[in-house]
Design brief:
This protein has 19 helices and two strands. By secondary structure, it is mainly alpha-helical. It starts with a helix and ends in a 22-residue tail after the last helix.
């Protein structure tokens, strides 16, 4: 079974995903004139203003529960900022070498264009739910491409990937960290996580949004401050670290030994797991936001890619590389804990364990929401939410006692299939995101706060029910 899983993984990530993911990112970067670079200032401006109520956001009435632009950003960031930032980066460096960090940066810079397109499309084609707006790839595939079977295929893939395959990765990492720091048995950790997961996800998207709005920014800031301390203490070693990253990404020795290929594969794989740019997950959260123009949330979600990879993932990479223990034979969360213990002291392993509990648990509840909204898309039947909640919680419990290699391998396969499905869709529908961007820029040039009207793109006016 392990050999078969590894074989599928190697094929998907060595020959398919790297080309498709980076190729789409490059295409959208050129087609949208580098929107992810030239509009960073606008992204920050929108994020600062996103907490304010926008009375002109929706002209056709709103669902009962308003999800602010920042709350939607926080939900998607909760899914992004998790064990992938702490354990995933460590795995990438342990298996792919320091050069993997460079390819994680490449995925962030190019993938952020994919993130802009998918989140803008999610807003454009969103629908009114019972308590909040709903949307995502399944919705824009059905409405934009008119392919119900294709939309349902994606909905099934994302439900399996996030609600079932990704959550064991989170609980596995939490269990290892707590066992390493406090000696807590993995079975005990799994049972507690299972109970907490059920308690939170039964509250729906509004409870998830409220929790993530507070927890995610706070824990990310603390973690970044710790990383900054390590870099300052080891500042004399910093040029050597940057040299290691570049040399291992392009070095002659690495090319001759095949190491550059492993660095690229691990960097792209772990980078995508962490920032989810182009994967098709964050559009589900982006669609819930109450904004006056689809591009607003598209830009804010693009900023989330930078926050995840260029800040949090890079912080972990610098901690590990500055400590000099990256080639110690350790991997995953244990490598990150060892690196911090080497720089700050053994108490740092306790901090990492606590941080990973917060990172991982907020990811678990955000991941569940992606599954729920797509189950509703396929067709909600009596008890469907209950079944999904129980299965998702059960996978959290199983993941805590499963092997590290197995849970990550299964997650990688599910992620690859889901990403391929979404990338094809956004390439086919990307022209609508471009026209939304042109409309947004035209209104901004006239000094207006952009408002989208459905007749802006007449051919899809009837399919954009919330505008």
């Amino acid at each position: 079974m392990t050999d078969i899983i590894d074989l599928i993984n190697d094929f998907l990530w060595s020959y398919v995903l790297i080309v498709v993911l980076l190729g789409a990112g490059l295409y959208f970067t050129l087609n949208l004139e580098g929107v992810q670079f030239r509009m960073i200032g606008e992204m920050c401006r929108l994020l600062v203003r996103s907490g304010k109520k926008d009375d002109t956001s929706i002209g056709q009435g709103k669902p009962g529960g308003r999800i602010s632009s920042f709350q939607a950003f926080a939900v998607s960031l909760a899914s992004r900022v998790g064990t992938g930032n702490v354990a995933g980066v460590a795995i990438a460096i342990a298996l792919g070498g320091p050069g993997a960090v460079f390819w994680m940066w490449v995925v962030a810079f190019l993938g952020s264009a994919n993130a802009f397109v998918e989140s803008t499309l999610a807003q454009l084609f969103k629908v009114k739910g019972e308590h909040s707006f709903r949307g995502g790839p399944a919705y824009y595939i059905q409405k934009g491409l008119g392919k119900r079977w294709y939309a349902c295929t994606f909905a099934v893939l994302i439900t399996i990937t996030f609600a079932l395959a990704f959550n064991p990765v989170q609980s596995n990492t939490i269990a290892i960290a707590l066992n390493n720091s406090f000696g807590i048995d993995n079975i005990v950790t799994g049972g507690v996580l299972l109970g907490l997961t059920l308690a939170v996800i039964w509250g729906g998207i509004r409870r998830i949004a409220k929790i993530n709005e507070i927890v995610v920014p706070a824990m990310a800031v603390f973690y970044l401050l710790l990383a900054l301390y390590v870099v300052i203490v080891r500042i004399s070693y910093f040029p050597h670290v940057m040299g290691l990253i570049i040399e291992n990404a392009f070095g002659i020795n690495q090319i001759a030994g095949g190491g550059i290929g492993m660095a690229m594969i691990m960097g792209v794989k772990r980078g995508l797991f962490s920032n989810e740019a182009g994967e098709g997950s964050t559009p589900n959260a982006a669609a819930t936001a109450d904004v006056s123009h689809p591009v607003k949330q598209g830009l804010i979600q693009t900023l989330g890619v930078y926050t995840d990879t260029l800040l949090v993932c890079t912080a972990t990479a610098f901690i590990i590389l500055c400590s000099g223990v990256f080639d110690s034979g350790l991997t995953g969360i244990e490598l990150t804990q060892a690196a911090l213990a080497n720089e700050v002291g053994t108490a740092a392993t306790i901090f990492v364990a606590i941080a990973i509990v917060l990172f991982g648990f907020t990811s678990i509840v955000a991941n569940y929401y992606y599954g729920e909204t797509n189950i509703d898309f396929i067709g909600r039947f009596k008890g469907s939410h209950t079944v999904l909640r129980l299965l998702s919680a059960a996978m959290v419990g199983i993941g805590s006692v499963a092997s590290l290699n197995l849970v990550w391998a299964l997650a990688d396969i599910a992620m690859a299939l889901m990403t391929l499905c979404n990338i094809v869709a956004i390439v086919l529908l990307g022209r609508f995101a471009k026209r939304c961007l042109e409309d947004y820029q035209a209104q901004r040039k006239r000094g207006l706060d952009p408002i989208y009207h459905k007749n802006t793109i007449p051919e899809i006016a009837e399919k954009t029910e919330c505008w």
